[in-house]
Design goal:
This protein is an alpha/beta fold and 230 residues long. The protein has seven helices and eleven strands. The protein has one domain: Spore Coat Polysaccharide Biosynthesis Protein SpsA, Chain A (Alpha-Beta Complex). It has a five-stranded mixed β-sheet, sandwiched between helices. A two-stranded antiparallel sheet has the order 5-11. The chain has a two-stranded parallel sheet with strand order 6-10.
């Protein structure tokens, strides 16, 4: 079973673009779950309308507790249903690949025993010296997570300040238990309507929280100044 999970907050235009491109490019899923959190721009009503179109589309309305809470609700649903989980965001536009289904390709790769997480081309980034300089990570906007990973690791770490860098932390957690990153050959348009920044970046002490987040991860994984050899 494969669930597509999408946190939704105040991005009605992006939601429609993402959803149209998703349904136009893949049929390789069993369910779509939208976690909508007190939107004020009509996104909440759009989610309900989308759910009315097909029984495989489900909307869950929650208090506004941030994207990290929404992502972990999706992890919990996937774990309960013993399903693979594909995470994405409303600021993504998916490709219509010629004569192939990009999500079906990811689903096939997920069958590999050592596969811990799958992304697309440029579906992540490279950490700077704040964590491990040059460390490649998988971004939450295009992330296929097999059930085996969810069963072993669970969801994102809720203790990371502002949730900043949770995808870096999660990628490291996956590799720490011997699972691997795989990449499927396609590309998504990320941030096609990105104008105002992520919600957590509007926090008045964002830069301080960002430093705290990376310090927390360095201490958690014993890297950087915490890499002490007895």
């Amino acid at each position: 079973m494969l669930i597509i999970g999408v946190p939704v907050y105040n991005d009605v235009k992006g939601l429609r673009v993402m959803f149209d491109s998703l349904l136009d490019s893949t049929t390789a899923f069993d369910k779509i779950v939208l976690i909508e959190s007190e939107s004020t721009d009509g996104s909440n009503k759009t989610c309900d309308w989308l759910s009315s179109l097909d029984k495989c589309i489900e909307t869950i309305h929650t208090p506004k507790l941030g994207p990290l809470d929404a992502y972990n609700r999706l992890f919990e649903i996937a774990k309960k249903e013993k399903a693979d989980l594909f995470l994405t965001q409303t600021d993504v536009k998916f490709p219509a690949c010629y004569n192939r289904d990009w999500l079906a390709d990811m689903k096939k790769v997920a069958e590999v025993d050592e596969c811990g997480i799958i992304t697309c081309y440029a579906g992540g980034g490279t950490s700077g010296p704040d964590f491990i300089n040059g460390y490649p990570w998988v971004g939450a906007w295009c992330t296929y997570i097999p059930y085996r990973t969810i069963e072993k690791i669970g969801g994102y770490d809720m203790n990371i300040p502002l949730g900043y860098g949770v995808d870096i932390d999660y990628t490291y957690a996956i590799q720490s238990i011997g699972l691997k990153i795989y990449v499927v050959n396609y590309w998504v348009d990320h941030h096609p309507n990105y104008n105002e920044g992520h919600e957590h970046e509007k926090c008045s002490d964002f830069e301080q929280k960002k430093k705290e987040a990376f310090r927390y991860m360095r201490e958690k994984w014993k890297v950087g100044e915490y890499n002490v050899v007895d």
